[in-house]
Amino acid sequence: MSIRDRRAQLFRMEEARRQTQRQLDMIDRQIIGRMTAIIPQLRPQRAGYRRGSGPEPAMFLERYRANLAAITLERQHEIDALSRKLARQDAAIEVLRARLPPDLMRA
Predict the structure, then answer these.
(1) Sign of the CA dihedral 12, 15, 19, 24?
(2) What is the pLDDT of residue 6?
């Protein structure tokens, strides 16, 4: 395999890695979007707490974390698969970079 072919292959592998990273980022944004939509429902719905004590922030955080864990669990198999794929791609890119002469990496 010529150096030109290796550089082209490296470029393709780096682009595939960027695509995988974009997929992971998209899943993160979707989870954040769902959590943003859920936040108003997590606040206590008491109408008359003006005279008593206010809502407890610890309860809100507990409900928030429980919902975040549930939403993340729904997508965990996708996240795990993409993370493994990303690790394999990183290792393959490093092997290919080691085969290229340093002065020809970015020409």
Answers:
(1) positive
(2) 87
Residue 105 falls inside a structural domain: no
Per residue in 70-84, pLDDT (tens digit) is 999 999 999 999 999
Q: Which range marks the domain in which residue 67 is found?
A: 3-42+56-100
Within 13 Å and on the Cβ side, how many CA atoms surround 81? 6
Which of these, 62, 77, 79, 72, lies nearest to 23 by C-alpha position?
Answer: 79
Q: Give how many domains the chain has, as a whole number.
A: 1
- Ranges of H-type helices in the chain: 3-42, 57-99
Does the pLDDT at position 90 exceed 90? yes
Distance CA 18, CA 11 (A): 11
